[in-house]
Write a structure and sequence with these properties.
By secondary structure, the protein is of the alpha/beta class. Helix content is 18%, strand content 39%. The chain is built from six helices and 18 strands. A hairpin with a 2-residue loop joins strand 7 and strand 8. The longest helix is centred in the N-terminal third of the chain and has 12 residues. The radius of gyration is 20 Å and the shape is elongated.
C-alpha cells in the first residue's frame, strides 16, 4: 500500500482501549506515522492521538484499526466506505467473525501491513432508501415490530413485481457478512462472504411461507409495508434509524465491494465460524 502516513482508530464504546492505543501510538511514532481518532469516542488515554471528525479522518487515514468486536468493525467499515480504506480488526473480547488479530499479534500485524504482506477481502454493503432516509449497512437492514403495534406484514417486490408476503416479528435483509448475525438467529443460512446478494429472513414468522430467500446482487428489492402491518422500527446494523408506517416502501440494493477488510491468511471464514459456533463435527450418533 506504499508509504503509510496516517492510521485511524475506531474504538469499542465500553472496553478499556488505553493499553492497546499506547502500543499503536508507540509503533506509529517510531515510523513518523500520525494516529488519528474520533473526538466523540471515549477512552482516549494519549494526547498523541490527533482528533478529527469522521469525514476528515476518513480523508486522511491510509488504514483504519478497529479495536473491539464485530460491532466496532461495522462502524469502521461504514466510516471507510466512501474511500474504501482497508480496515484491520483487533479483537478485544469475544471472538467475532470480522476481527483478524488478537492484541498480542497487533504489533506484528502492523509491521506486515507496512511491508505489504497482507490481502484485502471485499465485503458488500446494503443501501436502503425510503422517503428522505438513505442509509448504509454491512450486516443487515431490519424491519422490526414495535410492541403493541401489530405484526411486521411486508410484501416483497422483486424486479418491480410482487413476489411473496411475510408476516413476522421482524424481517431481516442481510448481506453475506450479516448472514451470521441477526439473520442466523432468525433461522437463516450461513452464506460465504465471497457471495454477493441479499438474504431475506423472517424472524418468528406467522405466515404460511416462512423460508429465507436469497437474491442476486443485481436484482431490485423493495419492501412494501402492508395495511395490516403495525408501525415498524427500521434498524441498520442494529442501530435504530427511524420508523415506518403502512404504505411505506423501502428500496434495498447491494453495494458491491463497499468495504475492504485486511486479512493475513491465518484463518478462513469457515475456521472462524467453527470456533464461534463451536462446530466440532456431526451431531449424529455413530
Amino acid at each position: 500500500m506504499g508509504s503509510m502516513r496516517a492510521l485511524g482508530l475506531v474504538l469499542h464504546p465500553r472496553r478499556d482501549c488505553a493499553p492497546v492505543i499506547a502500543t499503536i501510538v508507540d509503533w506509529a511514532r517510531s515510523r513518523d506515522i500520525d494516529v488519528l481518532g474520533l473526538p466523540e469516542e471515549p477512552g482516549r488515554a494519549s494526547d498523541r492521538v490527533s482528533m478529527l471528525e469522521s469525514g476528515p479522518l476518513a480523508a486522511h487515514a491510509d488504514v483504519l484499526v478497529s479495536l473491539g468486536g464485530d460491532g466496532t468493525m461495522l462502524r469502521a467499515m461504514r466510516l471507510s466506505a466512501d474511500r474504501r480504506i482497508p480496515v484491520l480488526g483487533v479483537n478485544l473480547g469475544r471472538l467475532g467473525f470480522l476481527a483478524e488479530v488478537d492484541v498480542p499479534e497487533l504489533a506484528e500485524a502492523l509491521c506486515s501491513i507496512e511491508r505489504d504482506e497482507f490481502t484485502v477481502e471485499d465485503r458488500s454493503g446494503l443501501r436502503a432508501t425510503t422517503g428522505d432516509t438513505d442509509v448504509r449497512a454491512f450486516n443487515d437492514i431490519a424491519l422490526v415490530r414495535v410492541p403493541g403495534h401489530g405484526m411486521t406484514d411486508v410484501q416483497l417486490h422483486v424486479e418491480g413485481n410482487p413476489f411473496v408476503r411475510y408476516s413476522a416479528d421482524a424481517l431481516v435483509v442481510a448481506t453475506p457478512t450479516g448472514s451470521t448475525a441477526y439473520s442466523f438467529s432468525a433461522g437463516g443460512p450461513i452464506v460465504s462472504p465471497r457471495a454477493e446478494g441479499l438474504l431475506v429472513t423472517p424472524a418468528a414468522p406467522h405466515s404460511a411461507f416462512n423460508r429465507a430467500l436469497f437474491l442476486s446482487s443485481g436484482e431490485k428489492l423493495a419492501l412494501e409495508v402492508l395495511p395490516s402491518s403495525g408501525e415498524l422500527a427500521v434498524e441498520a446494523d442494529g442501530l435504530l434509524i427511524g420508523h415506518v408506517v403502512p404504505g411505506a416502501i423501502i428500496e434495498i440494493s447491494v453495494l458491491p465491494a463497499a468495504a475492504r477488510v485486511i486479512r493475513f491468511g491465518r484463518t478462513t471464514f469457515y475456521q472462524r465460524t467453527q470456533r464461534k459456533f463451536r462446530l466440532t463435527g456431526s451431531a449424529e450418533i455413530d
